[in-house]
Every structure is written in structure tokens, then in C-alpha cells.
Write a structure and sequence with these properties.
mainly alpha, 67% helix
Length: 120
């Protein structure tokens, strides 16, 4: 469990560091609830998929809609992976997802934005 806690903290640190430099915070908020943006609709879809336990489909949705020109999308993606990183290992396993997939996805997204903190 200590290894997983360390892994979890490492993912959170990468997300928080990115957010502190590239976005104003990690909380995804609708710009206008009555007139949702493309990102707002994607966020709604992601939260529905998480609620239904389909993290693999949610993960695919993030990458299918990835827009490296939108900092709002970066915020959306970081928020999503932060939320699922907060799930415990048993919850992730029950949804056929692993913490390593979260880290890989975050690093892949950062790479798409040209962000590299760990010198890979």
C-alpha cells in the first residue's frame, strides 16, 4: 500500500505542478451553465462515464477530444485525472483501471502540450 500511496502522490504532484504553472487552478467550472462550451459538454460526458464506472471509455474520450491549443481543455483533463487518482486501488480495479494508466495518460497529455517536467 505504501508504494501505491507514493505513486498516487507522484501523480498528484505532477498534476498540481502543471496546474500551478499553466492554469489558474484545478477546479473545472462552466463558463456559462446556460450556454455550455465544447469542453463543458466533454466534462459532463466524462463525469457520467466515471459515475457509471467506465473509466476506460472516459480515458478514451479525453484523448479523442484532446485539443493542445486549449488551456481550458488541459484544465479539464488534469481535473479528470486528479479525480480518478483519488479513487482507491480497489475502486480502480473494479473499473478495470490501474494507477499506472493514470500516470501514463497525464504524461501523454503533458507531452501533447509540450510540457515535460521529468526529462523523459
Amino acid at each position: 500500500m505504501i508504494k501505491n500511496d507514493t505513486f498516487m502522490r507522484e501523480i498528484n504532484d505532477i498534476i498540481k505542478m502543471t496546474a500551478s504553472i499553466y492554469t489558474d487552478d484545478l477546479d473545472y467550472e462552466y463558463e456559462n451553465i446556460d450556454n455550455k462550451t465544447k469542453e463543458d459538454k466533454i466534462y459532463d460526458e466524462l463525469m457520467e462515464l466515471v459515475s457509471s464506472g467506465d473509466l476506460n471509455a472516459a480515458d478514451e474520450c479525453v484523448f479523442e477530444n484532446l485539443d493542445p491549443n486549449s488551456m481550458n481543455y488541459l484544465k479539464l483533463a488534469l481535473n479528470f485525472y486528479k479525480k480518478i487518482n483519488e479513487l482507491d486501488d480497489d475502486e480502480l480495479k473494479s473499473m478495470d483501471f490501474e494507477r499506472g494508466e493514470i500516470k501514463s495518460a497525464v504524461l501523454e497529455i503533458l507531452d501533447a502540450y509540450g510540457i515535460n517536467f521529468i526529462g523523459k
